Predict the 3D structure of the following.
Amino acid sequence: MQKTFSVRTRSRCCLVDVTGEVRGAIDELGVTDGAVLVYVPHTTAAVTINESADPDVARDIEKTLGKLVPASGDYRHAEGNSDAHVKSTLVGCSEILLVRGGDLVLGTWQGVFFCEFDGPRTRRMIVGAL
Ligand code: ZN
């Protein structure tokens, strides 16, 4: 059982809070207790869990990843987006989330973020019951 939803990103590198979309997918899947896999089927994007209360945290992650993995460097990939591929691998394309009582088991400040590294574009995320 899987559900797919779209994420519209608005800049080249940005974190988008998709916690509500993931909750919606869990509802549609009928998962009440167990776990789901949240998967990003792209090579220049990722998914992570981090603070959703203060938007400055997402901004700081974007900026720091940009410093760690510069846009230009000793890259061979001719498409010109090697930094986005490297960031995708560093952050990762999946997360396992626990579900209890029909809702995500998250800490008070945690949210689920789609991580865009080569936008803006329309992306997909897949939520699969485990
Ligand atoms: Zn590429």
User: Anything to note?
Assistant: The domain at 2-68+79-129 is CATH 2.60.120.460 (Jelly Rolls). The pocket of zinc ion is lined by residues 77, 79, 81, 85 (CB under 6 Å).
